[in-house]
């Protein structure tokens, strides 16, 4: 159950519908449903006016040991600074990916998508498990690359779909 804070500009409503559609079109056993009320949601999308310079949003983390999704994520429209449905939908689908257990495909070298000066995440405390049938190195356009350029649309690639179908 996904909900969107009423504080978001109108473009975010179309974007969360797009993000949900991408997952639900992938024929997974996992199905997202949008609900109006945060109280009925286990994946709320929360609004923030400011999380610091250049910060687009904040992940809610990874799933619990019981298999429940991380409790949503936060986005900062003032920094995202766009009304592009596919771009915002790409950011949302990425954050939803974290909530259901996805690491960055370039976790071992964030420079791949973020450019110079960015550190590597390594396995971190939650691990980073290669999904059978997917490449061990990052590929262009994966929705789980660490960074995304302004306005870029990243619908699921064939390998993204392999990963999602393997887990869900
Ligand atoms: Zn991320």
Automatic annotation (TrEMBL):
GO terms for molecular function: metallopeptidase activity. SUPFAM superfamilies: Metalloproteases ('zincins'), catalytic domain. InterPro entries: MetalloPept_cat_dom_sf, Peptidase_M10/M27/M57. This is Protease.
């Amino acid at each position: 159950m996904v909900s969107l804070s009423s504080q978001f500009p109108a473009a975010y409503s179309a974007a969360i519908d797009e993000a949900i559609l991408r997952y639900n079109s992938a024929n997974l056993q996992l199905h997202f449903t949008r609900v109006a009320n945060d109280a009925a949601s286990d994946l709320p999308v929360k609004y923030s006016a400011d999380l610091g310079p250049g910060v687009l949003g904040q992940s809610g983390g990874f799933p619990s040991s019981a298999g429940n999704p991380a409790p949503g994520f936060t986005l900062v429209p003032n920094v995202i600074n766009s009304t592009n449905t596919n771009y915002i939908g790409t950011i949302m689908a990425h954050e939803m990916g974290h909530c259901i257990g996805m690491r960055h495909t370039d976790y071992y070298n964030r420079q791949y998508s973020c450019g110079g000066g960015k550190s590597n995440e390594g396995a971190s405390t939650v691990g980073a498990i290669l999904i059978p049938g997917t490449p061990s190195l990052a590929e262009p356009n994966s929705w789980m690359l660490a960074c995304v350029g302004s306005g870029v649309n990243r619908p699921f690639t064939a390998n993204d779909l392999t990963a999602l179908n393997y887990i869900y």
